[in-house]
Specification:
It is an enzyme of class 1 (oxidoreductase). This protein is an alpha/beta fold and 476 residues long. Helices cover 56% and strands 9% of the residues. It has helices spanning 12-23, 35-45, 57-62, 78-88, 105-117, 130-136, 146-159, 177-205, 211-221, 229-239, 249-252, 262-273, 278-291, 293-299, 312-348, 354-360, 372-380, 392-415, 420-433, 439-450, and strands spanning 5-8, 28-31, 51-53, 69-72, 96-99, 121-128, 139-142, 162-163, 166-167, 463-465, 473-475. The strands form three sheets. A seven-stranded mixed sheet has the order 3-2-1-4-5-6-7, with helices on both faces. Strands 8-9 form a two-stranded antiparallel sheet. A hairpin with a 2-residue loop joins strand 8 (162-163) and strand 9 (166-167). It is globular and about 80 Å long. It binds NADPH dihydro-nicotinamide-adenine-dinucleotide phosphate. The site of NADPH dihydro-nicotinamide-adenine-dinucleotide phosphate has 22 residues, from helix 1, helix 4 and helix 6.
């Protein structure tokens, strides 16, 4: 008997993916560097389907039906390169290696090019949904060649999450496109989490609500347009009480956020592409600020406004405002992320369909949310919007939210409660709205000190003014 697909790397993700394949009736070859993990998987979950365990790489490859489909789920970086090298040497032209780890898309491009020379399809695949998603249905973002998707797509679509019967898996584009989109997905996830955290902070510190009360507010939001996985788990976390102390759980957690790097990659890549992803950047920086214990200790004594808390009626109105600010800022975060995806797609010639991306993010992944339907609709319409913000539905939503959004940003500044995500999103929105930006002055300054030239509003051409001489203008 041969396997339809194989998984090597049986830590939490690989193990659950292998089980997911098996539960869908696929015979799965399984392998792990430390073979105790392979045996443990078969012992514990063998009854769920058909597993073919292998102790060595050679045995593993021999178990796969040709053309071989091999999924690698090991630590990103050097371990992934080592495992690719080990297996590529054993494969034949036409075989496929799927890297489901969180690889940087530039590594994926490099690996894809090297393996293509040998006739092997390398399919860098973004997989979102964590441990549970891997088992019950993740959102899957495969890159690589169209031929590889023809052979792999049906199996991956089988195990993916489904929303309205549509699998949350689609061929994103060639080489690194899948990992690029997964990276931006994670960037949006950072922004979304930061915005939710700011809403929590404002409801607590400005409106004076306790975590259990904030949990109720979030539960309410989760039955409206903000309905999403992240809002749902936030309500759950805030309602949780610490068993040891009886205090709200969130109050006993240290306030230093860590990160594994995909948010940082998103911002680094956005800087290279020249895409303003300010909401994602603020989210990465907010985590980073939280971790700087020393400068935070030094800053604690800095003066601020006297703490005040809104009361009763005002607090309830403020909670409604925060809902609007959160929704509007979230729209901006997605607009920025989609802009980055489109810029990457242009730069690397990937022809990514943003509407399809929104569609496969509707289920399985961490940022799954009701409002992704609206994004898909916006990009499916015959008039593709230049920015998500200019699509009819979102333009109307922002028009309805903007007054409340401004009040929340103003209140946060007045009360001295940081809301960098809300504020950056609003500044981006107002930046796009502005008929004139002070960029004109910046161009003039650049011309003054560096002869960097400028363009005029009234004539074509490029100009320089002799600032230190007669101040005459020359066409250059
Ligand atoms: P880890 O990232 O913790 O990786 C552990 C696995 O890698 C083990 O199977 C380990 O084998 C193997 N490994 C490490 N180094 C080597 C090596 N040099 N040679 C061979 N095998 C090696 O596992 P996860 O399951 O958490 O994640 C797997 C991948 O999926 C990662 O790239 C991760 O970023 C990505 N991912 C993780 C998500 C999550 O929620 N955890 C979500 C989405 C993607 P051994 O048992 O022998 O040590």
């Amino acid at each position: 008997e041969r396997a339809h697909i194989g998984v090597t790397g049986l830590a939490v993700m690989g193990r659950n993916l292998a089980r997911n394949f098996a539960r869908h009736g696929h015979t799965v070859a399984v392998h792990n560097r430390t073979s105790a993990k392979t045996r443990a998987l078969v012992d514990e979950f063998g009854h769920e389907g058909s597993f073919l365990p292998a102790d060595t790489a050679e045995e593993f490859v021999a178990l796969l039906e040709p053309p071989r489909r091999l999924v690698i789920m090991v630590k990103a970086g050097a371990p992934t390169d080592a495992v690719i090298d080990e297996f590529a040497a054993l494969l034949d032209p036409g075989d496929m290696i799927v890297d489901g780890g969180n690889a940087h898309f530039a590594d994926t491009r490099r690996r894809e090019a090297a393996l293509r020379e040998r006739g092997i399809h390398f399919v860098g695949t973004g997989i979102s949904g964590g441990e549970e998603g891997a088992l019950l249905g993740p959102s899957i973002m495969p890159g690589g060649s169209p031929e590889s998707y023809a052979a792999l797509g049906p199996i991956l679509e089988d195990i993916a999450a489904k929303v309205d019967g549509v699998p949350c898996c689609a061929h994103i584009g060639p080489d690194g496109a899948g990992h690029f989109v997964k990276m931006v997905h994670n960037g949006i996830e950072y922004a979304d989490m930061q915005l939710i955290a700011e809403a929590y902070d404002l409801l607590g510190r400005a409106a004076g609500l306790r975590p259990a009360e904030i949990a109720e507010v979030f539960q309410g939001w989760n039955s409206g347009r903000l309905e999403s996985y992240l809002i749902e788990i936030t309500a759950d976390v805030l309602a949780h009480t610490d068993a040891d102390t009886g205090r709200p759980f969130v109050d006993v957690v240290q306030d230093r956020a860590e990160q594994k790097g995909t948010g940082r990659w998103t911002v680094q890549t956005a800087l290279d592409l020249g895409v303003p992803v300010s909401g994602i950047a603020e989210a990465v920086f907010a985590r980073s600020l939280s971790g700087h214990t020393d400068i935070r200790a030094a800053g604690r004594g800095l003066p601020g406004p006297a703490p005040t808390t809104l009361d009763g009626e005002a607090a309830a109105r403020f909670a409604d405002d925060v809902e609007q600010a959160l929704y509007a800022s979230k729209i901006v975060a997605y607009a920025q992320g989609i802009h980055q995806i489109e810029a990457g797609s242009t730069e690397y010639d990937w022809a990514i369909d943003a509407g399809r991306v929104a569609e496969i993010w509707r289920g399985g992944c961490i940022i799954r949310a009701r409002f992704l339907n609206r994004i898909r609709e916006a990009y499916d319409s015959p008039q593709r919007p230049e920015s998500l913000l200019s699509a009819d539905y979102f333009r109307d939503a922002l028009a309805g939210a903007q007054d409340a959004w401004r009040r929340v940003v103003a209140t946060s500044a007045e009360l001295g409660i940081p809301a960098p995500g809300f504020a950056a999103a609003l500044a981006y929105y107002d930046g796009l709205r502005s008929p004139r930006l002070p960029a004109a002055l910046i161009q003039a300054q650049r011309d003054f000190f560096g002869a960097h030239t400028y363009r005029r509003v009234d004539r074509d051409g490029t100009f320089h003014t002799e600032w230190s001489g007669d101040r005459k203008e020359h066409a250059v």
